[in-house]
Amino acid sequence: MRAMVLDAPKKLLRLRDVAKPRPNAGQLLVRVSACAVCRTDLHIVDGELPEPKLPLIPGHEIVGRVERIGGGVEDFRVGDRVGIPWLGWTCGECEFCVSGRENLCRRARFTGYTIDGGYAEFTVADARFAFRIPDTFDDVRAAPLLCAGLIGYRSLRKAGDPKRLGIYGFGAAAHIVAQVACYEGREVFAFTRPDDNEAQEFARALGVSWAGGSDEAPPEKLDAAIIFAPVGALVPAALRNVKRGGTVVCGGIHMSDIPSFPYRDLWHERTICSVANLTRRDGEEFLAIAARIPIRTETQTFPLEQANEALAALRSGKLRGAAVLIP
Ligand SMILES: [Zn+2]
Ligand SMILES: [Zn+2]
Q1: C-alpha 96 to ligand 1 mean position (Å)
Q2: β-pairing, 164-168 with 109-110?
Q3: The pLDDT of residue 261
Q4: 192 pLDDT more than 90
Q5: For the stretch 282-320, what's the b/e string if a residue is b when 16 or more beta carbons lie within 10 angstroms of its beta carbon?
Q6: How remote is the CA of residue 145 from the centroid of ligand 2, in Å?
Q7: Are 149 and 207 in contact (CB under 8 A)?
Q8: Which of 18, 85, 136, 188 has its CA 20 to 30 A from that of 123?
């Protein structure tokens, strides 16, 4: 089968013929029909995340159909449509796994990082970590739900119950979480790169109350803010825009260093937290609400062999919504 392979960090991906994977017990062999491109893929390719599997097939927002099934799988049939997310395996027995926090499992394995992912014609996945995708979404529009949507949703829940929510970095995750927040009756304030009028218009078209540059102050103080842009300087900037008692959620897996700031900006019980990975429960909750809204994902498709171009478009901030690779 054909796959886009990373041989070493900071190298371009290469199109290769590699052996088609075989499903072991408990696994599904999935024919990939769409795989969205996530900022995490860019961090992996750039060598910003430690110890990826090498060589590696990236990609963890996978939609496909079950082609073969390993022993012991009861929940899926050949031909079923499945979604495969970032969380690929957990130990099931550590303090985190047994307390509903499998996203923090120290032995967790991650699709497209420590196990091969979906920049390929086929992939294998542990059936226990695969989701069913609601019929509301076609394959391409479903793909970005599997990380941008899921991590966005977990970030929104970490933000508490904000009436006014700021979102920094208006890309794939933000355009989905903004729709969930608006559906829940929250006022959303979108912060983009300064002068990125196109992104600000895109945000307004999705129903946000205000859109402006990350160097601007919103017209009203926020109850919470989520930061998706990997820019540490946005943490103190967001903190200054949240009310007392407010929360700043860092939704990305990697961020540049956070500059120091005066304690008074944190004072009055403001909180900073990060979001790591996802749990299967996040996935089930989010996919149900996504179908109910229903979320409209904005996508730009690229053929599989143009994965490097898709990553470059993401890096430049030129994408509207999410890039999706089609094998
Ligand atoms: Zn565990
Ligand atoms: Zn991701």
Answers
A1: 6
A2: unpaired
A3: 97
A4: yes
A5: bbeebbebbeeeebebbbbebebebbbebbebbeeeebb
A6: 10
A7: no
A8: 136
